[in-house]
Each structure stands twice: as structure tokens, then as C-alpha cells.
Amino acid sequence: MLTLVDRAIEQYAVEHSADLDPVYERLREVTWSSAECPQMQVGPLEGRLLCLLARMIGAKRAVEVGTFTGYSSLSIAEGLADGGTLVTCDIDPVTTQIAKEHWGQVPWGEKIESRLGPAAETLEDIEPGLDLAFIDADKVNYIAYWELLVPRMRSGGVLLVDNVLWSGTVLDPQEESAHAIVAFNKHARSDERVEAVMLTVRDGILMAVKR
Length: 211
Prior knowledge:
39% of the residues lie in helices and 21% in strands. By secondary structure, it is an alpha/beta fold.
């Protein structure tokens, strides 16, 4: 699990959060045993945050950029209102298949619609009025995804962006992804269309509300 928080504190927080359906642990085990870069999977705390935020705002239409093995998709979908839909984008059929196998194990998995292909192309076809969006994909395209999603959010809609601290390297960026995250953070901070806060959950989450 990728986190900037002391692991003992992280575990304490997990133990004092809501219980999870067993599907999440099964998915975690499969991801760590079979997927490349398993640390990309969101952890239980971030997953619960996604679920509860979706539930709090009564989200019915959600979009995710970056499916990986589907943990965050499951979390968002669990929090969606009845009849809600999550469109999730990825380019990897192998990890997406792992995701689908686990989505099929719970009733709320039916709310998830997978789109394989470049996320930017998928987002261009999304109708406005989104309640919730989650970006967790290739860092160099974060600004592009943001610019496609912000106009499609309803007023009061919530955007969440993962890895905005990039293991702390935003303080001294050296490689391409770190520089991309720094550029995105500046871009989002200056965007007057939203009101944003950066949270130190796991590897950093930017949460923004569309004005």
C-alpha cells in the first residue's frame, strides 16, 4: 500500500473505520499476487472515502479515469444512489478483467460500465451533469483529464484526484511524473471554476467542488 502515513497509524485508522465486504480483501489478494505494480491499488481508507463521498452527495452519475483492478470502482459504485452508473476508463484488458471478475461478485457491481481505450476519447463522449469524478491514471495527462471533466460536472459535483503528493516528491520533483503532478496541482489551485482542498490521505488526494 502506497501511503505517506506511518503504517501503524494507517492500520489503526483502518481498524477504526467501517467494515468492508469480503470482496475487497479478495480483490486486494488477487491484485498483489498477480498484477504488475499492485501498489497502484487504492487502499481501504481511500476506498471508504470514495464510497462515503459518493453516498453523501447522492451521486448517480460518476466517471473514473484509471480502473486498474477495480477496487476504487467497487468503492464508488457501492456509494452510488439506486440506479446510479459509474463509467470507468482504462487501456489494460488484463487488469480490467480482474476488475470485472470481482464486480460480478456483488450487487453494486452492476452499476459499473467499463470502457477500454484512451480515456480522453471516452470523456469526450460523456454528457454534462456528472455528480462525481475520480482521476487516477497516467500523471502526464492529469491536466487534460481535468479539463475534459470540469465542464462536465454539475454545480456542486465533486472531483477527486489521486497521487497529488507523489510519495512526497512534489517538494523536489526530478522525474516526469513528479513534474506533471506539480504542474497539475498548480493548475487546479488556480482554477476558479472549483473550490479545492488537498488531503494527506494515502499518497495525497485533491478534492474539488464545482462552483
